[in-house]
């Protein structure tokens, strides 16, 4: 997941992207496994994104934040499933 430092270059698209139904498929079930997430960069919206991701992963799944400075918020207190790490 790549998180830009600012939102100056983010803009809404003029039209919705086309959905190609032929390529949508389902995969057979598989045993649960930990998800590993690497977040590159940080901005004020990243904490909300990580909180939303926490609902989708198995307990104990690691998320590493690669950013020059450690995020000011203590995310770990807000999360149930993700284990937060920081990589400068």
TrEMBL record:
Protein name per Swiss-Prot or TrEMBL: Uncharacterized protein
């Amino acid at each position: 997941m790549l998180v830009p430092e600012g939102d100056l270059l983010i803009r809404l698209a003029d039209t919705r992207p086309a959905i190609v139904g032929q390529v949508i498929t389902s995969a057979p079930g598989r045993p649960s496994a930990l998800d590993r997430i690497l977040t590159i960069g940080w901005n004020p919206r990243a904490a909300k994104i990580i909180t939303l991701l926490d609902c989708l992963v198995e307990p104990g799944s690691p998320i590493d934040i690669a950013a020059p400075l450690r995020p000011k918020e203590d995310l770990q207190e807000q999360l149930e499933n993700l284990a937060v790490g920081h990589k400068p």
